[in-house]
Amino acid sequence: MKYCFGVDIGGTTVKMGLFSTEGELLDKWEIPTRTENGGEAILPDVAASIRKKIEDRDMSVSEIVGAGVGIPAPVDAAGVVQSTANLGWGYKEVKNELQDLLGGIKVEAGNDANVAAMGEMWLGAGKGEKNVVMVTLGTGVGGGIVIDGHMLVGENGAGGEIGHMFVNPDEEETCGCGLRGCLEQYASATGITRLAERRLAKNDDQTILRGQSLNAKVVFDAVKAGDEVAVQIAEEFGKYLGEAMATLAVIVNPAVIVIGGGVSKAGEVLLPYIERPFRERAFFADRDTRFVLAVLGNDAGICGAARLILG
Amino acid sequence: MKYCFGVDIGGTTVKMGLFSTEGELLDKWEIPTRTENGGEAILPDVAASIRKKIEDRDMSVSEIVGAGVGIPAPVDAAGVVQSTANLGWGYKEVKNELQDLLGGIKVEAGNDANVAAMGEMWLGAGKGEKNVVMVTLGTGVGGGIVIDGHMLVGENGAGGEIGHMFVNPDEEETCGCGLRGCLEQYASATGITRLAERRLAKNDDQTILRGQSLNAKVVFDAVKAGDEVAVQIAEEFGKYLGEAMATLAVIVNPAVIVIGGGVSKAGEVLLPYIERPFRERAFFADRDTRFVLAVLGNDAGICGAARLILG
């Protein structure tokens, strides 16, 4: 049997997994991310942990196909990072450095959102497909695009930044990126809260949302309870997201769009709100595109990272 | 020396080229496209023409790396077409059929707009780049996307249909595709004519455009002559196209966007009208994306088709 490692480097912990090349998750563990001193210990820690696992399991290096790494920053096609918000790294040749630390075991590196999309394609909601978009609805809106089985990396690693698609020319508030009218301003957890606050301030319509501390979960719980105002908020959220997905589909023509991230925990109730405006706006060739919920949760990163190594 | 053929099948003629694998165009010719009887003669004609060229130039089949074909229809990753508007074909396994007709010479097939983007990347305005978008502003708006040197084909060959990006929720007229507010309604030759007609109908502002038969050339000639109303029309055109390219860039993060098609014959005057709204709306990682005019003209198809065969 051949093996590969998947490494998902986050701001506080590094998630690690050992997989068979057939896609079986054999072992899973975590180590802390030591971001001090420019994050200089992170890759040596990862290498040491991989070496120890190889030793503990009495594996031979010839059985290891390689190790893939997901990183919370843009990563170019050569596995190079220019800077990171949470790891302490500036310019870093992740692929080359880790490869050296592992004594020549092959390494590939990618952006964490793109890597998560690879994970859902390999072992999750997009299993069996080769053209997969993953949208992660969390504090922000992240995106990963897989085309013909390969990550869409782009010129400087910034491919798939779906959250900053331009969806509303009339927006007056500024997005975290400095622009106005980005998808993230409506479809993220914070975006949904904002839509809810705006809707409640508009008039005195009765709703169980009033008086509650507003967030995405509260809104979708109210949708499930049949609250009309909450349904209107869900419709506005879904219109922005669904229409943006129609434009995304016109460009990349995916088989499936996977919805993940914290907001997706609302469950199946979410999908019709996205699908309806999507179908209304979709180019005829994209009308069969399916919407599904992510299934791998926090394991998407290690799965996708491991998959990177399989080409 | 090794050779490859590039074949660009159009509704009236098939353009053909013989290239060295280093990218030198050695010979170029055309044959008529015989669309009668479901287009049954088209691929046999192409194969006969290639065989004759091999014979005439006294080449050996072992020197031929293969033949690439561009087709005016969606073509999936297996080289299969479902239907065509202009060739008479319904379902057709282009890659397999032509491969058989050529006695095993390797064949690849792609959509003509995607293939043209490959051509501009290989030998034209995107030379030296691996992440290239080509926008063809003709009767409609066509698009081709090259990611890491490979065509973005998509699930059913409909990747890169840039003309049907959703750019205006307020549009009341219907696009040829049946939707409303597609980029093609503003950025194609017919779209520019429409914008001009609307602008002139708005009020009595003085302009040299009045009384002329309006089209994209007339509008951009007036822009060059300093006509203020024409400049406003160019700004509206550029705002739709530039903002759409900002959203496209957020998704595919290209190094360069190549502007081609009939409208691009207006020349360099066109670019600032697209670039200005692009830069205002571009995500920070995409601000270095360059805009350039296509340079290969009608040869983009044969160049890109030949390039398909080089992987």
Write the layout of secondary structure elements.
Two copies of one chain form a homodimer.
Chain A: E1 3-9, E2 13-20, E3 25-32, H1 36-39, H2 42-56, E4 64-71, E5 80-81, E6 92-93, H3 94-101, E7 107-111, H4 112-123, E8 132-137, E9 141-147, E10 150-151, H5 184-187, H6 189-202, H7 216-224, H8 228-252, E11 256-260, H9 271-281, E12 290-293, H10 300-308
Parallel strand pairs in A: 1-4, 4-7, 8-11, 11-12
Antiparallel strand pairs in A: 1-2, 2-3, 5-6, 8-9, 9-10
Helix pairs in contact in A: 2-3, 4-10, 6-8, 7-8, 8-9
Q: Can you walk through the features of this model?
A:
The structure is a homodimer of 311-residue chains. In chain A, helix 4 (112-123) crosses helix 10 (300-308), helix 7 crosses helix 8 and helix 8 (228-252) packs across helix 9 (271-281). In chain A, a hairpin with a 3-residue loop joins strand 8 (132-137) and strand 9 (141-147). The first copy, chain A, is of the alpha/beta class and 311 residues long. The two termini of chain A are 18 Å apart. Chain A has helices at 36-39, 42-56, 94-101, 112-123, 184-187, 189-202, 216-224, 228-252, 271-281, 300-308, and strands spanning 3-9, 13-20, 25-32, 64-71, 80-81, 92-93, 107-111, 132-137, 141-147, 150-151, 256-260, 290-293. Chain A has a five-stranded mixed beta sheet with strand order 3-2-1-4-7. A five-stranded mixed beta sheet of chain A has the order 10-9-8-11-12, with helices on both faces. At the A-B interface, strand 9 and helix 8 of A face strand 9 and helix 8 of B.
